[in-house]
């Protein structure tokens, strides 16, 4: 009996740690069509449905809260057992989180007014000549840093909606955003897509579910396994078709 006691205590401790880890929270921002408010005022969207399916598969509560991106990003860096989505995985961000899996891919670009014939970008260095609106905490800043962009090139704003309005009003020259997000923003603000142009393609980006570094590996492993299962059994493809029918599942 004495020989079994240490093993029993170790097993109990592991189970206790995983149980505590299961009491997690998920933070996000509004980003159509991945995270939206539906006509009933409820949180919905492709990524929201995916996260809920993951939680059901793992057996934990889907406690999802919406915040401005900068706050959600800070929470996921500083609070244990906190998952964040939809977050772009970059070289700079890679060591800051534990990464569960990618579920969406998009193109990132500089956008300008179509009427601005004076804006010509043939290389990424050309963009440094112009003033760029970027939301605080947005991946656009870290994505451009390796190319020599710094605070002097950016006009930091609260969100992408404010960024676009500054572009429309001529207070900045460029907006950096992903292709889908930019098109959705224009649609929601009832602007004309023809009034804007893609001035330069920066990169292709994958969006992920990630977690704070203090989240136990046991839970991360369970979430990764569940993510792979949802891709294998067709759940991911079904959600992509529902919310993004024009895109090809990768």
Written description of the protein model:
This protein has 2 domains: 128 residues, D-Maltodextrin-Binding Protein, domain 2 (3-Layer(aba) Sandwich), CATH 3.40.190.10; 100 residues, D-Maltodextrin-Binding Protein, domain 2 (3-Layer(aba) Sandwich), CATH 3.40.190. It has 8 helices and 10 strands. Strand 2 and strand 3 form a beta hairpin. Helix 2 packs across helix 7. The N terminus is likely disordered. The chain is globular and about 55 Å long. It is an alpha/beta fold and 250 residues long. The strands form 2 sheets. An 8-stranded mixed beta sheet has the order 4-1-5-10-6-9-7-8. It has a two-stranded antiparallel ribbon with strand order 2-3.
Which descriptors apply to this entry?
D-Maltodextrin-Binding Protein, domain 2, 8-stranded mixed β-sheet, two-stranded antiparallel ribbon
CATH class of the largest domain: Alpha Beta
Radius of gyration: 21 Å
Number of domains: 2
SSE pattern: HEEEHEHEEEHEHEHEHH
> How many beta-strand segments?
10
Proportion of residues in extended strands: 25-35%
The side-by-side strand order for the widest beta sheet comes to 4-1-5-10-6-9-7-8
Q: Give the overall average pLDDT.
A: 89
CATH architectural type of the largest domain: 3-Layer(aba) Sandwich
Question: Percentage of helical residues?
Answer: 25-40%
CATH names the topology of the largest domain as D-Maltodextrin-Binding Protein, domain 2
List the topology elements:
Elements lengths: L3 H18 L3 E4 L7 E2 L5 E2 L1 H13 L5 E3 L2 H10 L3 E7 L9 E16 L18 E4 L3 H6 L9 E4 L2 H9 L5 E5 H10 L7 E16 L5 H16 L2 H9 L7
Parallel strand pairs: 1-4, 1-5, 7-8, 7-9
Antiparallel strand pairs: 2-3, 5-10, 6-9, 6-10
Helix pairs in contact: 2-7, 2-8
């Amino acid at each position: 009996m004495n020989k079994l006691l240490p093993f029993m205590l170790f097993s109990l401790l592991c189970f206790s740690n995983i149980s505590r880890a299961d009491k997690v929270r998920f933070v996000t921002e509004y980003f159509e069509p991945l995270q939206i408010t539906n006509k009933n005022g409820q949180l919905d969207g492709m990524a929201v449905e995916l996260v809920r399916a993951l939680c059901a598969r793992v057996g934990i509560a889907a406690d999802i809260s919406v915040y401005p991106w900068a706050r959600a990003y800070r929470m996921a860096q500083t609070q244990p057992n906190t998952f964040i989505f939809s977050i772009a995985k970059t070289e700079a961000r890679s060591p800051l989180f534990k990464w569960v899996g990618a579920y969406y891919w998009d193109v990132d670009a500089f956008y300008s007014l179509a009427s601005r014939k004076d804006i010509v970008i043939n290389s990424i260095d050309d963009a440094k000549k112009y003033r760029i609106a970027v939301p605080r905490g947005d991946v656009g800043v870290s994505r451009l840093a390796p190319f020599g962009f710094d605070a002097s090139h950016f006009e930091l704003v609260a969100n992408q909606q404010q960024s676009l309005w500054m572009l429309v009003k001529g207070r900045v020259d460029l907006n950096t955003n992903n292709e889908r997000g930019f098109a959705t923003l224009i649609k929601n603000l009832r602007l004309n897509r023809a009034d804007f142009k893609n001035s330069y393609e920066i990169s292709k980006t994958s969006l992920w579910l990630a977690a704070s570094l203090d989240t136990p590996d046991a839970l991360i492993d369970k979430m990764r396994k569940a993510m792979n299962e949802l891709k294998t059994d067709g759940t991911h493809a079904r959600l992509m078709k529902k919310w993004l029918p024009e895109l090809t599942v990768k």
